[in-house]
Specification:
- Helix content is about 35%, strand content about 15%.
- The chain is α/β, with parallel strands linked by helices.
- Strands 3-6-7-8-9-10-11-12 form an eight-stranded parallel beta sheet. A two-stranded antiparallel sheet has the order 1-2.
- Helix 2 crosses helix 3.
- The radius of gyration is 19 Å and the shape is globular.
- Bound molecules: NADPH dihydro-nicotinamide-adenine-dinucleotide phosphate.
- The site of NADPH dihydro-nicotinamide-adenine-dinucleotide phosphate (NDP) has 25 residues, from helix 9.
Amino acid sequence: KSTAAVPKLTMSDGREIPALGLGTYLGFDKNGMVSSKDKQHRDLVLKAIDLGYRHFDTASIYNTEDEIGEAVEMKIAERVVTREDVFVTTKLWNTQHKQEEVASAVWDALEKSGLDYIDLYLMHWPIGLNADYSFSDVDFMETWRGLEDVHKLGLVKSIGVSNFNKEQLQRLLEEGSVRPVVLQIEVHPQMIQEDLISFARSEDITVMGYSPFGFLVERFGKQFPGPKMDDPVLMEIALKYGKTPAQVVLRWLVDRNVIPIPKTVNPKRLKENISIFDFKLEQDEIEKINRFNSNKRYTEPSFWQTHPHYPFEQVKDILPDPFKGLGTI
Ligand code: NDP
């Protein structure tokens, strides 16, 4: 039934990780993170497993851990997959950064998903916040010790971080007892992350690339400046391989050894996004796409930029904090 076998990469702890994952952040509205209705997302994940997806990227804040877990459980019962075939990544939210809060956050993720372990647990941000979203002074090294605890307990098989910059990663490598095996960061044609990716590679840290389509696509009804899917450079490469520009962009990540985690809720695009393991880009094609770089971030939570552990450059126009006033999520 499955249309594609997704290759695997080996992480520095010796465990394997599928070279492509399904993103499951469904958006944000006035009530917080959007969640699935009527098991729609569970059904999408069922379809994804049939198509060959074995890796799911979620987070406590996305509200999708439950339906991913339910779909995985159903496919195990149908004997389509075993638990070992599936790789689930989830993330610790910023309001649970105290060392002793990490284990309860993991128990919560296990309970929601119905899984008995998590494959990869990431610290979502280096930024610690209080329950009311004011800045907390919990240092990310304390939080990392919490991740080391749950790793030791076997509740999570591998641990890593997301949205850390180079200096923060260096500190983690110097002061931590367990090395992070994965760094998840924004990677797309306008944010190619050359420096951070080569630093991660030099430390044997596997990179996962989020928002792989960057500004090429309209997001939640909003258009952004820059090249679009019909850009002539992408179109030319796509034509050469008989692929779509979206597939070319995903392959550009794979050929740079970055694990793309494209999100889609559309069954046709679900199949399109996994059908990228039967071609490979030439070096000059990779470089042509690299030239789109403008270091533009889509995820730029400038409302946290005065936090002592904010990982990105400061900007002039500060966005309002969408989390404030939502209460404890
Ligand atoms: P993506 O780059 O995956 O883009 C998703 C958008 O592209 C959606 O609007 C989707 O629409 C559309 N799309 C998907 N496939 C195609 C295609 N083949 N052709 C044209 N359009 C397409 O963005 P995300 O920001 O969702 O990033 C992916 C995942 O990364 C997230 O879901 C999440 O798991 C993770 N992430 C992690 C972050 C972190 O802080 N660690 C931050 C942001 C994301 P449609 O659904 O209608 O197909």
